[in-house]
Amino acid sequence: MPANQATNQIIIEESWEHFDKRFNVDTNVAASTDVFSVDVQAGQTSQLRSSAESFYAVRTSFLPFWTLYIPNVVEFVPKEKFNLDFPTPFQHKYREEYEKFFERYGTHYIRRAWVGGKAMLTFTIAKFAQMSKAEIRRGISASTMIVSGSQ
């Protein structure tokens, strides 16, 4: 997921202006130093605009397509490369050796990673349906649980 978004996030806005504002990049944001992402699908939200007063809701999810698992990272690298004279336990005087090691190998490695994509379900709910934001949120959450089979 992009840096500024959470998995299974539900956003409900009471007007098109507020909803549209969430999905358009402001030039001030683009020039800032904060991390942000531009969603290619954001331009498609204009198709959802209703002429009647409506709530606009979106649920962002992550769809895992497959997982990559490496049981033993050392098997993919010649063992001689990991046979280093690495000073342990930690002592500050060996900081230069530690920095060289971390520069070459990093500080962490992963053994499992999910590969997938982002899905956005977007809804337009007319206000004359007399549903509250809480009811809309419960409906979106319930429909997602049924689809995923995690009742």
Task: Quote the beta fraction.
Answer: 15-25%
Largest sheet: number of strands, sense, barrel closure: 3 strands, antiparallel
Total domain count: 2
Gap from first CA to last CA: 24 Å
Continuous helix count: 5
Q: Secondary-structure element sequence?
A: EHHEHHEH
**General shape:** elongated
Descriptive key words:
151 residues; alpha+beta; 3-stranded antiparallel β-sheet; 28% helix; 24% strand
Tell me what you see in this structure:
By secondary structure, the chain is an alpha+beta fold. The chain folds into two domains: 1-71 and 117-151, no CATH class; 72-110, no CATH class. 28% of the residues lie in helices and 24% in strands. A three-stranded antiparallel beta sheet has the order 1-2-3. It is elongated and about 70 Å long. The chain starts with 8 loop residues before the first strand and ends with a helix. The model has no long low-confidence stretch (mean pLDDT 74).
Give the structure's gist in a few sentences.
This protein is an alpha+beta fold.
Fold blueprint:
Blueprint: E1 9-13, H1 16-22, H2 27-30, E2 54-69, H3 79-82, H4 95-105, E3 112-126, H5 133-148
Antiparallel strand pairs: 1-2, 2-3
